[in-house]
């Protein structure tokens, strides 16, 4: 690894979602090893790395959907594992790579699912529930699509509906796993414009380095389950790092929006 790839320790505080030296083994294989993550409130943190580097596993650990085999994930200083799923879901929303259902649901039905953590079982919706759902639909530009059946939606529309469902939870933290997969560039940009404009702390796993450079305040780069670099995109996305982590020759310039880095790929390393 080059000097560009040294991972600086993250700054930890009591507030918000934190991962401290988390690791995960499965089927005798080490998937994550000693990963720290401490996003500043209100920022967007991109989790980068090749396939198999541990991005999705890290997101699932942060969401409490998997348990770490080492280290701890905390929420406001308390171990996530000691909190009920309902308590976690009132604070933290997750949008996974793909969502589908065979049940006949409308857009409104799906977004209303975001209010489940705020209600007791079998109780009717409240005025607060309806307010949160309306606000989520408006924020995602889906108000006019509320009655549209789920199965008629495009991939980009389904992703927006999932984000609306997450927003209806009224979270402080939002976790997204490869939300731009299978979307055309127009929908990729529109979705990330939406996500990064939200008043929440966001952790998003991404494949596209240029999208990460455009939209993320900080990036964390994983390679074989370990953090190899973290910091502002301009500091992290170097030609040396891209060569070492991705095995690709690249030219990095400051020609992106707001002079953020822009990566031009030149070919694979032999």
Structural class, from secondary structure content? alpha/beta
Largest sheet, if any? Answer: 6 strands, mixed
Strand content: 25-35%
Q: For this entry, what is the oligomeric state of its chains?
A: single chain
Low-pLDDT runs: 1-13
What order do the helices and strands follow? EEEHEEHEHHHEHEHEEHHEE
C-alpha Rg, in Å?
19 Å
How is the largest sheet built, in terms of strand order? 6-7-8-3-9-10
Count of separate DSSP helical elements: 9
Mean pLDDT across every amino acid position: 90
The outline comes out as globular
Strand count:
12
Report the helical percentage: 25-40%
CA distance, first residue to last residue: 17 Å
SSE topology:
Elements: E1 17-26, E2 29-37, E3 44-48, H1 55-63, E4 70-75, E5 78-79, H2 85-91, E6 92-95, H3 107-112, H4 127-139, H5 155-168, E7 173-177, H6 185-196, E8 201-205, H7 209-215, E9 218-223, E10 226-231, H8 233-236, H9 239-246, E11 248-253, E12 262-268
Parallel strand pairs: 3-8, 3-9, 6-7, 7-8
Antiparallel strand pairs: 1-2, 1-4, 4-5, 9-10, 11-12
Helix pairs in contact: 4-5, 5-6
Walk me through this protein's architecture.
The protein is α/β, with parallel strands linked by helices and about 270 residues long. About 30% of the residues lie in helices and about 25% in strands. It starts with 16 loop residues before the first strand and ends with a strand.
Brief synopsis:
This protein is α/β, with parallel strands linked by helices.
Features:
270 residues, six-stranded mixed sheet, four-stranded antiparallel sheet, globular, disordered N terminus
């Amino acid at each position: 690894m080059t000097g560009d790839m040294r991972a600086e320790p993250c700054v930890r505080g009591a507030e918000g979602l934190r991962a401290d030296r988390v690791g995960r083994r499965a089927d005798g294989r080490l998937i994550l090893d000693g990963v720290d993550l401490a996003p500043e409130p209100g920022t967007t943190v991109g989790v980068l790395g090749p396939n198999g580097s541990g991005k999705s596993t890290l997101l699932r650990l942060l969401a409490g959907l998997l348990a770490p085999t080492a280290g701890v994930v905390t929420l406001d200083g308390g171990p996530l594992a000691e909190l009920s799923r309902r308590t976690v879901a009132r604070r933290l929303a997750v949008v996974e790579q793909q969502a589908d259902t065979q049940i006949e649901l409308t857009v409104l039905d799906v977004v209303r699912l975001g209010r489940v953590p705020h209600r007791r079982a079998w109780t009717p919706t409240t005025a607060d529930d309806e307010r949160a759902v309306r606000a989520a639909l408006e924020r995602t530009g889906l108000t006019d699509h509320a009655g549209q059946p789920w199965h008629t939606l495009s991939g980009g529309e389904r992703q927006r509906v999932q984000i609306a469902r997450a927003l209806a939870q009224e979270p402080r933290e939002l976790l997204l796993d490869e939300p731009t997969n299978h979307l055309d560039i127009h929908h990729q940009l529109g979705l990330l414009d939406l996500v990064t404009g939200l008043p929440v702390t966001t952790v998003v796993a991404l494949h596209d380095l240029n999208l990460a450079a455009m939209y993320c305040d900080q990036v964390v780069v994983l390679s074989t389950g370990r953090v190899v670099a973290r910091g502002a995109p301009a500091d992290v996305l170097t030609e040396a790092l891209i060569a070492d982590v991705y095995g690709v020759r690249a030219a990095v310039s400051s020609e992106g929006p707001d002079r953020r880095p822009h990566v031009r790929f030149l070919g694979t390393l032999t």
